[in-house]
Prior knowledge:
Layout: H1 2-11, H2 23-26, H3 40-53, H4 56-61, H5 64-67, E1 71-72, H6 85-88, H7 90-110, H8 117-138, E2 141-142, E3 159-160, H9 162-180, H10 199-216, H11 223-234, E4 245-248, H12 258-264, E5 269-270, H13 272-279, H14 294-297, E6 298-299, H15 318-321, H16 324-330, E7 338-339, E8 361-365, H17 367-379, H18 387-407, H19 417-426, H20 433-448, H21 452-462, H22 496-501
Antiparallel strand pairs: 1-5, 2-3, 4-8, 6-7
Amino acid sequence: xxxxxxxxxxxxxxxxxxxxEKFDEMNTSxxxxxxxxxQAHMVFARCVYHGMSNDHQRNFNLNDDMYAHYFAEGLGWTxxxxxxxxxxxxxxxxxxxxxxxxxxxxxxxxxxxxDYNGMKAANDIWNVILWLRVxxxxxxxxxxxxxxxxxxxxxxxxxxxxxxxxxxxxSRLQADVALLSSPGTKTFGDYDLVYxxxxxxxxxxxxxxxxxxxxxxxxxxxxxxxxxxxxxxxAGAMSAPSDYARVNCDTYxxxxxxxxxxxxxxxxxxxxxxxxxxNGVNKGYATGIVDPRRGFWFAEGTGAISGSGWDGFPNxxxxxxxxxxxxKAHGGDRSFALLNCYDKNGFFYFNFHNxxxxxxxxxxxxxxxxxxLKAEAVLRGWMSGDxxxxxxxxxxxxxxxxxxxxxxxxxxxxxxxxxxxxYIAALPSFGSGENALRSVMIQKWxxxxxxxxxxxxxxxxxxxxxxxxxxxTYPTIHPSSLVGEGNIVQxxxxxxxxxxxxxxxxxxxxxxxxxxxxxxxxxxxxxxxxTQSKSSAPKSL
Length: 541
C-alpha cells in the first residue's frame, strides 16, 4: 500500500474542477497521467484508498458519524448541526476533481478487451459506491448530459435528479454483474484493496448494492420498476460473514481516521445513544441485556467523569459540553467508553506495521445488511418469506461478522450461540406492520456500525432509529445551523463554489443562493423538499 501511495501520489495530478463555467478548460489537466504512462492497478488503488480516507474527519466524522448517532464530537464544531462550508465541500471537490478522472482513466487503459472484464466491473462498482456518497449527502448532482457523457470527462454537466441517477446506477451494477460472470484473466494484482481480485465477492457486492439502491427508492414512484431489480439480485447477493466488503486503514501513514480522531486527538467520543443501546438501557428500545458486540466494538473507560466506563458522550449537549471536567476530557482523559483499538480481539484493532494484520477499516457492505434488506422486502411485499426470521438472521450475522473481522488479524473473538440467542430473546417484540419495520431498522442500525453514511441514509429514508420514541436524542441546535428547531438534518449543502460559478445548472430551489440542511432528498421519508420533525412518529410502510 505504501508503494502505491508513493508512486501514484508523486505523479498523478488530476487537477479538474467539476461543474464550473470554465469546466472544459479547468477539467483538462496538462500534467495528468495518461493511458500510456500509468497502469490501471496503480490508479485503482489510489481511487479506492483515497475514496475512503481523504479528510475522513471533516468529510464523515463531523457529519455522518454525528447524524447517525454513532459518535459525538463534543467540541462544538458540528455536533449541534451547525454547518461548516469549508468542511462540507471537501468530498464533492475530491470526487469531481480526482475520483471521477481516475475512474475514466482506468477505463481508458483497460479498453474493451474482455480479459479485463473483472477489472472493468470492479472499477465501475467502486465508482457507484462513490457516487452514492455524493448524491446521498447532497442530493441532485451533475451526473450525465443529454448525449450520454458522464461527469469527469471534461464536459460541462447539468444537474441530474436522484430519481434519474438511481435507476442508471442500478443498470450499471446489473451490467457489472454480467461482466463478472466472465471476468477474464487480468487482475489488479496486489492493488485490489477490497477483495484481492476475488471476482465472486465483487459480484456479490454488486448484487447487494442493487438491493440497497432499489430499497432506497421503495417509497418513490420508481419503486415498481426497481422491485424487479431487487428480486433479481437477491440470490446473488452476500451470503456469509466472510463477504464483508471493507478497505483496511493504513495506520502507518498520516490520516484522520479513528486511530487519530479518537485516540491521538481526543476529538471523537462514542455516542451516548449508541452506548445506551449497547448497555441495554436505551430509553426508546430497552433490552435489559448487554449487547454481546459491546466488548468487541468498545473498551471500558475510566468512568471518572461519566460515572461509568461504559457511558457514551451525549450528542450536542451544551450543558455537558461546557463543563470544565469535560473540557479536561478533550485533553486526553478516557472517562467515556473507548473504541477497542489496542486489543487483537478488538474490532478497531490497528497495527502500525502491518496493514493486513489489523481490523481498523472502512466498512462498505455486509451480509447482515442483505438479511435486513430481505426482512424489509417481506414487510413491503417485495418478496415472500418470514420477515422476523430474516431479522434474527441479520442480528446473528452481524455478531458473526464481528468475529470474522477480528480473526483476520489473529484474534480469537467470537460471539457464542448462547449469547446470540439470549440477546434475541431479550429484545422487544418484533411486532407487525410499522412496528416490525421499526424493529428491523433499529437492529440494522446497530449492525451497520460504524458505516455511518449508510446508517444516516436509513434514518432519513425510514425515520428509524427515531427521535420520537427517544432512541435518538435530539441535540441542542446551534444558531448558525441550517436546520430549524425541531427538524432533523437531512442533507449537506452544496459547496459555495457551485453557487458562485454554476448556479444556473443547480436545482431551481437553490439557484437564488438558498442553503439548508433540512430539505428531504427525493427518497427520504415525507418526500423531496419536505422536512422531518422530531415530534412526529415515522410512518414508512
